[in-house]
């Protein structure tokens, strides 16, 4: 069965252990209030100004248009439309509630609460509005005010499971665990497949003064029977297993959570702890290194967000991605750097090397050619020679090596391969020229290497008379 879907996508309340392990908070879908009879045409319609047409639109059409904008993640213009709707019909609650949802999603909770105040003043007997405002107050940790809203919502509708769940979160925030247990159990009684309430109940078992780990595991397992990808339950059950020293089970839960959401560092930290407790220091260290890698990536991304035209940042991001074998992301980063400056030798070199690592030699050569059209660089031409060599284009490779005046083992390889190629084609004379040239280069390389590796004879040991030296350096006394 599908989980209850919240109208509001909001961050979790952090209680005690970390964001990823916090109880899941759920707000209920908004109940549409009854329509009020219009007094005049001006009240029935609104007219957001447009350049194309002065046609008046109705209140409901504005609401529908704002919903369409939200589907496109255009919250800014959705807010503008909802404000126009409120101005057109200030005594209708729906636009206030919709605008509050957008504000809350942007973490502007006080402004969201202000809109909910207006909505509740219009529709005072709507329990869902009380629940929604209470939820925003809960996120601000204004527990007393939140509890008052939840109590009122329960008075208005005693069979409303979400409000019991949310009031239970208030009690968790105040360390009133028995009250929290009672509320989550009531929410589950009203909705036996309410996964969020089950997860929060399990969380209370973990947080009590005398934690009940077996009961917590049983409760989180119930959540996962309903929704196998419920991340909070996986992580929380893993922590319970860890407390009971059931390391394999804990590692399995954290690993599953990582597979579902690999960008979440919290699961790597938990698994690192479990590996360490199980005595596997190597894997524990590997998970910690991943966390450090992610933190560095987040820092690079933050800097790019502030300065997206900085080539060095894109290059740094590409190289960082390669440390974790994120090939496609590295490619995109280097491509972004090259798009900013097609002559940048560092970006081009890194991108060509990446082509090499993927066996894409023709693509590497083509990229170098494009770069050389803008800037005749010895480094890029040398790289293109390597790409031609790997692609079997020996004439082109040797031409680039000669233009660069290169003198190394790859040049020797290019001449030897071309000698073989010419011999196979019946060009014995040309083959001999290449073979002789390769042999000559190889001998020169060997001589150079021997000279560089020739050991330096040790200096002869000369004994030192330290007393005599000290006396000689002693200043004369006048």
TrEMBL record:
Keyword vocabulary terms for this entry: Repeat, TPR repeat
Transmembrane segments: none
Pfam families: TPR_1, TPR_11, TPR_19, TPR_8
Disordered, as annotated region: 21-55, 441-478
UniProt cross-references to SMART domains, sorted A to Z: TPR (SM00028)
Compositionally biased intervals (Polar residues): 37-55, 441-450
InterPro entries per UniProt: TPR-like_helical_dom_sf (IPR011990), TPR_rpt (IPR019734), Ycf3 (IPR050498)
Repeat positions for TPR: 127-160, 161-194, 231-264
Name of this chain's protein: TPR repeat-containing protein YrrB
Gene that encodes it: yrrB_2
């Amino acid at each position: 069965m599908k989980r209850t879907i919240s109208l509001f996508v909001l961050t979790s309340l952090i209680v005690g252990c970390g964001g990823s392990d916090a109880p899941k908070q759920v707000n209920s879908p908004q109940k549409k209030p009854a329509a009020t009879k219009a007094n005049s045409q001006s009240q029935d319609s609104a007219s957001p100004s447009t350049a194309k047409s002065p046609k008046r639109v109705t209140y409901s059409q504005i609401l529908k248009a704002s919903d369409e904008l939200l589907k496109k993640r255009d919250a800014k213009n959705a807010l503008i439309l909802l404000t126009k709707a409120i101005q057109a019909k200030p005594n209708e609650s729906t636009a206030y509630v919709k605008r509050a949802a957008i504000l809350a999603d942007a973490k502007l909770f006080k402004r969201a609460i202000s809109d909910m105040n207006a909505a509740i003043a219009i529709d005072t007997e709507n329990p869902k509005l009380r629940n929604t405002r209470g939820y925003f107050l809960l996120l601000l940790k204004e527990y007393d005010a939140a509890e008052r809203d939840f109590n009122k919502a329960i008075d208005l509708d005693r069979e409303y499971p979400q409000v019991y769940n949310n009031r239970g979160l208030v009690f968790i925030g105040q360390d009133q665990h028995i009250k929290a247990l009672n509320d989550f159990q009531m929410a589950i009684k009203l909705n036996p497949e309410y996964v969020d309430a089950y997860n929060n109940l399990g969380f209370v078992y973990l947080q009590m003064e005398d934690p009940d780990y077996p009961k917590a595991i049983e409760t989180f397992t119930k959540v996962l029977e309903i929704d196998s990808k419920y991340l909070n339950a996986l992580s929380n059950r893993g922590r319970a297993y860890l407390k009971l020293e059931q390391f394999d089970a804990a590692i399995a839960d954290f690993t599953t959570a990582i597979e579902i959401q690999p960008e979440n560092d919290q699961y790597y930290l938990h698994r690192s702890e479990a590996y360490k407790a199980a005595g596997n220091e190597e894997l524990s260290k590997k998970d910690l290194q991943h966390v450090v890698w992610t933190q560095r990536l987040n820092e690079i991304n933050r800097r790019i967000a502030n300065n997206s035209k900085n080539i060095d940042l894109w290059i740094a991001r590409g190289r960082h991605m390669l440390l974790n074998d994120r090939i496609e992301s590295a490619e995109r980063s280097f491509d972004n750097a090259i798009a900013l400056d097609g002559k940048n030798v560092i970006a081009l070199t890194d991108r060509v090397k990446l082509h090499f690592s993927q066996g894409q030699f023709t693509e590497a050569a083509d990229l170098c050619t494009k770069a050389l059209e803008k800037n005749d660089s010895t480094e890029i031409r040398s790289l293109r020679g390597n790409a031609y060599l790997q692609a079997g284009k020996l004439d082109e490779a040797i031409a680039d090596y000669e233009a660069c005046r290169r003198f190394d083992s790859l040049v020797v390889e290019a001449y030897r391969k071309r000698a073989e190629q010419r011999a196979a084609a019946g060009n014995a004379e040309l083959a001999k020229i290449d073979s002789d040239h390769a042999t000559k280069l190889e001998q020169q390389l060997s001589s150079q290497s021997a000279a560089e590796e020739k050991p330096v004879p040790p200096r002869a040991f000369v004994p030192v008379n330290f007393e005599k030296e000290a006396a000689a350096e002693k200043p004369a006394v006048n």
